[in-house]
Amino acid sequence: MKADAKTTAEVQATIKKFTDAYQARRLNDVMDCFAPDADVMIYGTGADEKRIGPEQIRAQVERDWAQSDSLSLSFDWSSISAAGPVAWAAMDGSFKVRAGGQEMTVPARVSLVLENRGGRWVVVHSHFSTPAAGQQEGHSF
User: Fold this and answer.
1) Which residue among 13, 18, 92, 140 is least packed, with the fewest CB closer than 10 Å?
2) Beta bridge partners of 50
3) Taking all residues of the chain, what is their mean pLDDT, rounded to a whole number?
4) How many Å apart are CA 65 and CA 55, to the nearest integer?
5) Would you say residue 137 lies in a domain?
6) Rounded Cα gap, residues 66 and 116, in angstroms
């Protein structure tokens, strides 16, 4: 079910905290957006990017930063739903990356599952992807 206005604003605030901290390379603030649980996870866009637990997520973020000069993530569409202390968000947007002297903008699709703990929303599962390159519109494969 669609989240109410309060939940939507709170989830959006967590997402903004994450994107701002990721762009500014503030590791502690990035990690504060995730649950500290051993089974918290992220799927990234790379074939090897399945990270489970805070230490693996931390290592992935540090790898992202080590392999880039700048990174940002922005969204132009989102949908946030919730039931009790669990919320889920789907977003379309783009990654803007400068690496190896080149700048690129890559379409982004992001889904998050968040849990309200002690009055704040933290990510317990996230999935970052890009649309399949070369797949024609209107085609499933």
Assistant:
1) 140
2) 43
3) 97
4) 15
5) no
6) 32
Residue 141 within a domain: no
Q: What is the DSSP string of 59-126?
A: HHHHHHHHT-SEEEEEEEEEEEEEETTEEEEEEEEEEEEEETTEEEEEEEEEEEEEEEETTEEEEEEE
Q: Is residue 140 part of a domain?
A: no
Helix or strand (DSSP H, E) at 42: strand 41-43
pLDDT per residue as tens digits for the range 67-123: 999 999 999 999 999 999 999 999 999 999 999 999 999 999 999 999 999 999 999
**DSSP secondary structure letter of residue 53:** S
| Number of independent structural domains in the chain | 1
CATH classification of the domain holding 104: 3.10.450.50
The whole domain housing 30 covers 5-129
Cα angle 126, 129, 135 (rounded to 5 degrees) comes to: 150
| Distance in angstroms (rounded) separating the CA atoms of residues 97 and 103 | 6
